[in-house]
């Protein structure tokens, strides 16, 4: 089949950023159905040029000399606010031409800034850049500008920041917003400063500066508190709350939105009350979702109860917006129809996601209580614009999801869904909104795909791609869809690979663009991106349909590409976990990829186990293993199906992985106080046979194995795999390390001159769930005996503040933390335990209003990131997390360990996968450091020797196996 010329042309165009960033689209929190396509929610950069009442007053003054210009400006604003961007652009272009003829510079600059935003929404990026650059040029030099001119200049800078951020240029966006803040200060315009501070907080967060980001939001909040009570204050407080939600600060978000709602009610602003209550419902939904995720891992009744309370609060917030029934306690809201529909659909979406089937039934009954024709009439009553089109499309997707998943008798026919999407497409065409039309066409394609009408699906999807204006958030979805359809239609493999490669490259851009979005608001990584990566790997590593044995050699180019995709998937998982980009080192050290470092190390091999769905065997997995040997091209040495009977009560149609089930069984055996050879060794041997035995001869000359582990393989220590023939654990044959994707390591050999900063907590931290660690002092004494160059802070002296000071003021290259910790339940719940600060320190922080007061002694991942980034000295050679509680049973725990390693800038990190008796830990650490100072022994070999020492001296497997070296193994 001939590939579309448009697709080839697209290769020559630069990747472009996301366009759907208006506040009105924040209601689309996350479509939990109709996978893999989702509504993506970019973070909201606050747009000053079209949203502020005070800006409108300013423009009225500036434009008073031209009634026609004023009329056109106001008309364009109405179109923009309604989501009718093409009409807004046309109207503002007329105004711009009028002002140009009149020589009205300030008016022309204002309308050009607005015009840039309209072009951006339409995906017309060259025009958007040209318009904002023209606006900027008109206002130079700034020294001669009046206060009104400065405010317009600040507006232009804000718009330039939006354009930079949407194209992934976060640093440039931040600089523009910093400049805008200064300009607004000079113009004595606090409302503008609030907007710029909120925007800066988003940029700072995406760069990993969590504390500075929080400080900017606090400053914005303080400025707002000083403003007079007005509709503008209501709107800005809502923007603040929405930004805090996007950044994962859900409690702060609720506080800000509560204040906005209270003020809106006090000022009797019914439309603002409705808009803020909708946003509050979205925050409560995100809180319920977050707590539900934690409850599913802890399985604590209290967590499930709290998640249920939050769900009920969110339901109430939504119901009050669409229920017309009177309530004695509260006046009935009469929100705009748009907000009413948004609340109804958000509630239905949430109910489906939480599997509240009775509630789903009631919501569908309310939506479909009349004939479908009546529902269509209600939809037609919505105001013209993009938000209304998105409501229609979200409704179709939710109804289709219910047809497939919900145990309800209330369904709407597929033909009706086709008609509704086709009608939506026509309305998008009438608005000349090709972005919305692209969504409608793509969703039509997806609907046809689910009904196996692949030819029709391909036709609509290809048309959607043409209308996508090269926006990666659209292109990746439609290219992926075309790849699946080409595969279903059994078209040539080159075409399938072409589409998957295009989808992969655009997904990379989308993933990076969305890093500034918080974990509960960003698109669900596992639902939206991970399946694409795995499907693409499956296409690059084809399964032979004729026989079980496959050609393991394959196309070398495609094997290298599979390696690239795997590496990027690992990095993507880390970035998703951290909710920010991986921090670039701020030093002059020369770095190289893991693969390049391994090539120089003639005794090290890299192993990539990959879990893929086996499309031919429901309930089975396809295990692929790639091997990178020194000075050899990457090779594929294992490809096999793994099929076991699912646990009782689990259907093969459920989200069940045979490989993950086997690995989970092994993990449970490993954690038992007394490892059972009868149950555990057969599992250890089976997994060894999966990964190691087929490459036995090639690995004979190797001394170190570096694993880039996938999914549930991260749950189990590779050291515990067992060679049944030689009766040896893997750690007895090889030193072992784990790393993540295409991370850069220093090219130089590790520094063997060690200087240690050790922090320990042997006393009871008085924190629920954690007790004293009596062997910590012995552990620290052992280390000092081996490495005399050591500074120590412990017990009451080990606080977050003291650790920060020690890191900032000393030149240690090893940091050893002997304390409790937990890694894996999420970024906010990954932490180590220190002594809580004194009451005097807490009061001092409160007085300075710098940050939230740490009252429990937990130092979470964000705070650790800030602690290590305050250090402007030599990079950390080794970070040791000698903690007693480092496990959660979640395969994200290694992400937590790796996250701390990367955010700290440490070359290597040593930690454990589960709770270990601190007596055996002190013994292992003694041997580890004794070995480490030997210049001929690598870190991985030092750990190997320490683990073998415990093994040979009769310690149980659960005591020596879980140690994990992450990063540089040398």
From TrEMBL:
<dbReference type="InterPro" id="IPR024983">
    <property type="entry name" value="CHAT_dom"/>
</dbReference>
<keyword id="KW-0472">Membrane</keyword>
<protein>
    <submittedName>
        <fullName>CHAT domain-containing protein</fullName>
    </submittedName>
</protein>
<feature type="transmembrane region" description="Helical">
    <location>
        <begin position="12"/>
        <end position="34"/>
    </location>
</feature>
<keyword id="KW-0812">Transmembrane</keyword>
<dbReference type="InterPro" id="IPR019734">
    <property type="entry name" value="TPR_rpt"/>
</dbReference>
<feature type="coiled-coil region">
    <location>
        <begin position="414"/>
        <end position="441"/>
    </location>
</feature>
<keyword id="KW-0175">Coiled coil</keyword>
<dbReference type="InterPro" id="IPR011990">
    <property type="entry name" value="TPR-like_helical_dom_sf"/>
</dbReference>
<dbReference type="Pfam" id="PF12770">
    <property type="entry name" value="CHAT"/>
</dbReference>
<keyword id="KW-1133">Transmembrane helix</keyword>
<feature type="domain" description="CHAT">
    <location>
        <begin position="682"/>
        <end position="968"/>
    </location>
</feature>
């Amino acid at each position: 089949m001939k590939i579309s010329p448009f697709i080839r042309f697209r290769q020559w165009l630069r990747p472009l950023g996301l366009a759907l960033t208006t506040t009105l689209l924040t209601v689309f929190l996350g479509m939990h159905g109709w996978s893999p396509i989702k509504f993506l929610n970019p973070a909201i950069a606050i747009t000053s040029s079209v949203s502020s009442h005070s800006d409108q007053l300013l423009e009225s003054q500036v434009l008073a000399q031209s009634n026609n210009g004023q009329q056109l400006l106001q008309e364009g604003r109405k179109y923009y606010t309604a989501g009718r961007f093409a009409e807004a652009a046309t109207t503002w272009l007329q105004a711009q031409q009028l002002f140009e003829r009149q020589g009205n510079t300030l008016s022309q600059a204002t309308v050009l800034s607005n015009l840039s935003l309209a072009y951006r929404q339409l995906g017309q990026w060259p025009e958007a850049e040209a318009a904002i650059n023209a606006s900027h040029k008109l206002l130079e030099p700034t020294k001669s500008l009046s206060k009104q001119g400065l405010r317009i200049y600040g507006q232009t800078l804000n718009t330039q920041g939006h354009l930079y951020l949407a194209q992934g240029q976060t640093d440039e966006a931040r600089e523009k917003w910093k400049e805008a803040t200064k300009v607004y200060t000079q113009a004595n315009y606090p409302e503008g400063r609030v907007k710029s501070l909120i925007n800066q907080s988003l940029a700072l967060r995406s760069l990993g500066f969590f504390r500075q980001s929080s400080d900017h939001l606090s400053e914005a909040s303080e400025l707002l508190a000083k403003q007079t009570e007005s509709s503008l204050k209501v709107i800005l407080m809502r923007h603040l709350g929405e930004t805090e939600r996007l950044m994962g600060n859900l409690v702060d978000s609720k506080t800000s939105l509560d204040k906005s709602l209270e003020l809106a009610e006090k000022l009797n602003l019914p439309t603002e009350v409705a808009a803020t209550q909708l946003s509050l419902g979205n925050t409560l939904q995100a809180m319920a979702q977050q707590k539900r995720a934690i409850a599913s891992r802890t399985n604590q009744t209290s967590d499930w109860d709290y998640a249920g309370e939050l769900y009920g609060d969110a339901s109430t917030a939504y119901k009050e917006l669409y229920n017309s029934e009177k309530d004695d306690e509260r006046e009935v809201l009469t929100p705009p129809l748009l907000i009413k529909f948004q609340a109804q659909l958000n509630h239905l979406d949430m109910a489906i996601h939480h599997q509240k089937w009775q509630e789903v039934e009631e919501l569908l009954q309310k939506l479909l209580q009349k004939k479908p024709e009546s529902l269509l009439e209600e939809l037609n009553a919505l105001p013209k614009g993009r938000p209304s089109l998105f409501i229609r499309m979200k409704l179709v997707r939710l109804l289709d999801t219910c047809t497939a998943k919900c145990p309800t008798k209330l369904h709407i026919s597929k033909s009706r869904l086709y008609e509704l999407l086709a009608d939506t497409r026509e309305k998008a065409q009438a608005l000349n909104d090709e972005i919305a039309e692209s969504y409608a066409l793509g969703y039509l394609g997806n609907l046809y795909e689910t009904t196996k009408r692949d030819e029709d699906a391909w036709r609509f999807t290809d048309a959607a791609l043409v209308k996508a204006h090269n926006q990666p958030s659209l292109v990746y979805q439609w290219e992926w869809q075309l790849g699946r359809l080409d595969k279903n239609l059994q078209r040539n493999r080159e075409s399938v690979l072409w589409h998957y490669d295009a989808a992969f490259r655009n997904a990379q851009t989308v993933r990076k663009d969305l890093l500034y979005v918080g974990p509960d608001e960003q698109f669900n990584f596992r639902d939206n991106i991970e399946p694409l990566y795995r499907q693409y790997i499956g296409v690059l590593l084809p399964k032979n349909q004729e026989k079980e044995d496959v050609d393991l050699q394959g196309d070398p180019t495609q094997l290298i590409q599979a390696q690239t995709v795997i590496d990027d998937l690992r990095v993507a998982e880390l970035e998703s976990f951290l909710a920010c980009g991986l921090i670039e080192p701020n030093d002059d050290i020369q770095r190289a990829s893991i693969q390049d470092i391994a090539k120089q190390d003639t005794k090290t091999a890299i192993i990539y186990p990959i879990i893929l769905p086996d499309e031919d065997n429901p309930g089975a997995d396809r295990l692929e293993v790639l091997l990178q040997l020194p000075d050899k091209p990457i090779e594929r040495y294992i490809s096999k199906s793994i099929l076991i009977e699912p646990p009782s009560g689990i259907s093969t149609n459920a989200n069940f992985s045979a490989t993950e089930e086997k690995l989970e069984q092994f993990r449970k055996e490993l954690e038992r106080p007394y490892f059972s050879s009868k149950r555990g060794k057969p599992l250890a041997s089976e997994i060894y046979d999966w990964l190691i035995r087929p490459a036995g001869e090639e690995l004979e000359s190797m001394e170190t194995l570096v694993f880039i582990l996938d999914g549930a393989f991260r749950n189990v220590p590779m050291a515990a795999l067992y060679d049944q023939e030689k009766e040896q654990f893997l750690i007895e044959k090889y030193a072992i390390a784990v790393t993540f994707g295409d991370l850069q390591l220093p090219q130089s050999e590790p520094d063997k001159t060690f200087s240690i900063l050790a922090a320990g907590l042997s006393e009871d931290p008085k924190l629920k769930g954690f007790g004293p660690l009596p062997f910590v002092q012995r552990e620290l004494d052992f280390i000092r005996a081996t490495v005399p160059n050591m500074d120590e802070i412990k017990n009451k002296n080990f606080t977050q503040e003291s650790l920060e000071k020690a890191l900032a003021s000393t030149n240690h290259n090893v940091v050893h933390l002997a304390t409790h910790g937990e890694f894996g339940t999420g970024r906010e719940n990954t932490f180590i335990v220190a002594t809580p600060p004194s009451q005097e320190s807490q009061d001092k922080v409160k007085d300075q209003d710098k940050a939230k007061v740490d009252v429990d002694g937990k130092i979470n991942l964000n705070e650790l990131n800030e602690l290590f980034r305050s250090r402007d000295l030599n990079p950390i050679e080794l970070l040791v997390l000698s903690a007693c509680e480092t496990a959660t049973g979640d395969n994200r725990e290694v992400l937590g360990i790796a996250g701390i390693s990367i955010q700290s800038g440490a070359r290597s990190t040593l930690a454990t996968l589960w709770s270990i008796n601190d007596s055996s830990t002190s013994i292992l650490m003694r041997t580890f450091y004794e070995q480490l100072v030997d210049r001929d022994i690598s870190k991985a070999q030092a750990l190997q020797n320490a683990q073998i020492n415990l093994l040979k001296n009769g310690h149980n497997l659960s005591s020596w196996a879980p140690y994990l070296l992450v990063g540089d193994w040398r």
